[in-house]
Each structure stands twice: as C-alpha cells, then as structure tokens.
Amino acid sequence: MAGGMAPARCSSPRRWPSSLxxxxxxxxxxxxxxxxxxxTRGASNLLISPAISTEVDPVERSIRVPDxxxxxxxxxxxxxxxxxxxxxxxxxxRRSLEVREGRGRQPAxxxxxxxxxxxxxxxxxxxxxxxPYKGDASLFTLFANERDLPNAAWCYRAPxxxxxxxxxxxxxxxxxxxxxAIRPAGGGGVEWT
Length: 193
Hints:
CATH topology of the largest domain: Metal Binding Protein, Guanine Nucleotide Exchange Factor, Chain A
Order of helices and strands: HHEEEEEEEEEE
Radius of gyration: 17 Å
Strand order of the largest sheet: 1-4-5-9-8-7-6
Number of strands: 10
Helix content: 10-25%
CATH superfamily of the largest domain: Domain of unknown function (DUF427)
C-alpha cells in the first residue's frame, strides 16, 4: 500500500470519511489499490473516481467537463516511451498521449495506443473505476513470467466527449510497473528517464 496506509472502513454505504477523501484526491493511484482492497473485503457497487474519490451509486454518476478548476490537457507526443513490467517490455511507442490533470498536482500519465501494447499480457480486472471527467475505466492485470500485477493498467473504452482522444489507449500505473522510460523525440543521445 502506498505510504504504508491501511484502508479505512466505510461507516456509510455511500460515503467515505472526509480524511480519507483528502488522501485519495492527493494520491489518485491509491484509489485503485484501495478499491481492490475494499472489494476483497466485500464492498459491492464500488466505483471510485481518481478526481473525486467517493463511492458512487451507478445511477448517481455525474459527468463533469474539465475546466479551470480541474483542467485536463492531452498532448500528442513523439517521445519514445517504453513500459517494462515483470521483467518484460509491455509497450513501446512514439505515439503516446501525455495527459495532465488538476493544475499540475498530479504527474503526467502517458497513454499508449493499444496497437503498441502487448495486449496478450493484459487480462481484464474485476475492479470498477469511474471518473466523472473521463468515464468508466477498464482495469487490467498484467501477466508475464508466471507472475501478475493486479490493476496495473487501465483504459477508457468509451471516454466522455471532452477526452475522446483517450479511446484506444492504455495507461500504466507508475507505482505498479518496473519502469516507464521516456526519451525525448529525436533522442539526440539523451538517456532514457
């Protein structure tokens, strides 16, 4: 678990404690890990948004448009991007999308075209994640070399119209994979980061 924190128990079937909400909003990847943990403890209808980290009834899901309070920028990139997990290259591309959310409070996430991802290594996860800005996320568990990484990748198969460019792309949780290496377009002798 990130930061060594244990999942909190939800006293209400529809709301998380406010102290927990602040933590999850600051660390969106934690949402995925906590969703997995809560689901293993019996939570049902669990939909968690990285932007607004609350348990939401499927009927009550709202759609929000990125704005000045919560901006989302999507830029096409020709940088070389390589994802390594479980000792194996999972993806390699020069056609990623660099997505920045929430006034720079969160690190940029690279979304990689599915055509550039070894999709045979990804299996659908049972975890449900919803973001009011992007839509329903399909999570994947990575399987390679007889090991697995639960909920290490995700995609938006039918993203909301404001982020429609994300369709057909996969993102990887930096805290789950061994490395997301990026070399600026043109290389020019620059080391992979």
